[in-house]
Amino acid sequence: YTYNSYANNLVLETAELLNDEELTCESSPSLGSVRVLLHHMFAVEAFFLRRCQARQFALIPTDLSPLVDIRHHWGKLEQEQQELITSLSDSDVGRKIRFQIIDEWFELAVW
Fold first, then answer.
1. At residue 104, does pLDDT exceed 90?
2. Which terminal residue of the chain, N or C, has fewer Cβ atoms less than 10 Å from its own Cβ?
3. How many beta carbons lie within 10 A of that of residue 39, not counting itself?
4. What pairs with residue 31 in β-bridges?
């Protein structure tokens, strides 16, 4: 988890060096802009956390428009991740979660 947090912060620090045009211009064949990529990264982490918590996931993309909002929400997400990690027992860590994305099923360990 420590490395994940470090890497996410490094990505955000680098993105903060970009101007708005650089953040929003098409630069990736898979996701489009850097901003869309950041939204995707955040959404994947938030989705997996909610699944580990046995909660529903809902994200409105416009909630994360300015980069400052992305960093703010990501900070709150990291805090929730840390709270989950510290609350897990040894048996909880290996517990499997099963979820569906579109029409494909996945099964992963909680942590």
1. yes
2. N
3. 20
4. none
